[in-house]
Amino acid sequence: MMPVPQRPPGCPPGLEYLTQQTRVVQSAEHSYGFLTAGLFSCPSLFTQIDQLLVHQKVELIEAMLALETNNQYIIKNSVGQQVFLAGEETDFCTRMVCGSMRSFVLRVQDNTGQEVLTLTRPLRCSSCCFPMCLQELEVQAPPGSPIGFVMQDWHPYLPKFTIKNERREAVLKIVGPFCDCNYCSDVNFEVMSLDEDSVVGRISKQWTGMEAEMLTDADNFGVQFPMNLDVKIKAVILGACFL
Prior knowledge:
The protein is mainly beta.
């Protein structure tokens, strides 16, 4: 597990993990789809958090009986240390009737069990045929205090989203591919500047293998963002994984 860091001034409780410098102590070369972290034995080498890995827990009930359960996730940094745990709160009927488009509340806890992020998504559509009812997500930190939003933008064939701050001012864009179900490869959503001229990060839905893809709906994501990005916007980009 990642050790509890000190909280910088102005940082919401729990989000200090996203500003922490992680000591790299092992020599290895590991690839996570779009990113590769080089790890060296030098004790003085540190790296700020600019990457997160989101692993959805595989539920045996889902795999065996095709019954949708509350999703649970483990969130790690690039060296494999657990940073957060996340758990969905929805009722059985909502999960079975609305499927992946369901509304939900996702509570994110740190390693001490403190809830540091609350993600809420209302029941919405994602089709370009319904431009007035597209996806949105609110990110709160601490719970009850909004720090940002992810809003789907209308587009005839591309999945596009806007990252907004707590004042609902646009900060960044997310642009996905025409087809988000690539076979045997990762699906990349680029985090871009508002004019969409430059790429500043990426959300990657990782291919987990034929067996896992066929038998479960568990997803793994990689998230990359600039090191010097506002910690609140880092949290909102993390939240965008769960839309």
